[in-house]
ADP-ribose pyrophosphatase YjhB, NUDIX family
Amino acid sequence: MHGERLIYDDRWIRLGLVDVEIPDGERFEHHAVHLDRAAIAVVVDEQNRVLMMWRHRFLSDRWGWELPGGLVDAGEDAITTAAREVEEETGYRPKEIEHLITYQPMAGMVDSEHSLFLVRGAEFVGAPTGEIEADLIEWVPMSEITGMIARGDIWTSGTLIGLYAARERLNGASA
């Protein structure tokens, strides 16, 4: 990478044009999208249920079950964001929280680090605060997740990766 020229910049997105040289020596310009980091939580209770939110995504005009999460604020670490977002979006306060995995959902064109956390247990502390982000908030049995994915009721990358990583961790595999 020989440099980047900023094309657009606001609170939500930065778009750049990057001067790139690949290993064979070819050099060209490539668009790059920069988004803030995100933190997502898989909240599991003692009955092996996952706390999920039924949401509509306007860009794809599609409904689906998602995990709570959001953008990491300046000066905040991802684990703090995950805990804060769970409480704000669902009204549940996480008890134990641990890092699962960090990934890039669309490497090569988009820079948007996502950190996933496993929350074991949560205490209901009141109604969600701030923006209403979900039509339903429910505890879904982990045993129903595979069928929900197969039906297309769970389709976003953070939720899919989070659920698969949490299932592995809960079944004894380390990430």
